[in-house]
Amino acid sequence: MTSAILILLILAVILSGASTFLHARDKKQTELVALVKEQAYQLFLYAEKQDWIGPQKMSYVADQIVKLIPSKSLVQVIGEERIHDWLQSLYDDFKKALAK
């Protein structure tokens, strides 16, 4: 009986720790995405002012965002194409919001 309670207590502590870790990780990820979005919006505005045409504008923003990501291995895992796709959808949403 005592060992069963001890095992349950240990499991509760492990689950609590895992839950805390996952919550903290999700919060950091959300904060990072918000920070990157803010930087991307600023870069889009800068690129718009340069009168660059679509691909040149998107390449500039993507290159700058990739430079902001601290780990090159993270860029390799995410992939530059996925970053470009995400930035394109972000840009499309940005243009829609400006049109309203």
List keywords for this structure.
4 helices; mainly alpha; 100 residues
List the topology elements.
Layout: H1 2-49, H2 54-68, H3 72-78, H4 80-99
Helix pairs in contact: 1-2, 1-4, 2-4
Tell me, rounded to a whole number, the average pLDDT: 79
Q: Which quaternary structure do these chains form?
A: single chain
Helix content: over 70%
- Range of strand content: under 5%
**Structural class by SSE content:** mainly alpha
Q: What is the domain total for the residues?
A: 1
Largest sheet: none
Shape assignment: elongated
As residue ranges, the low-confidence spans are none
Count up the helices. 4
Question: Can you walk me through this structure?
Answer:
It is a single chain. This protein has helices at residues 2-49, 54-68, 72-78, 80-99. The chain is an all-alpha fold. It has one domain. Helix 1 (2-49) packs across helix 2 (54-68) and helix 1 packs across helix 4. The longest helix is centred in the N-terminal third of the chain and has 48 residues, at 2-49. The radius of gyration is 21 Å and the shape is elongated. The relative contact order is 0.08.
Condensed summary:
The chain is an all-alpha fold. Helices cover 90% and strands 0% of the residues. Helix 1 (2-49) packs across helix 2 (54-68) and helix 1 (2-49) packs across helix 4.
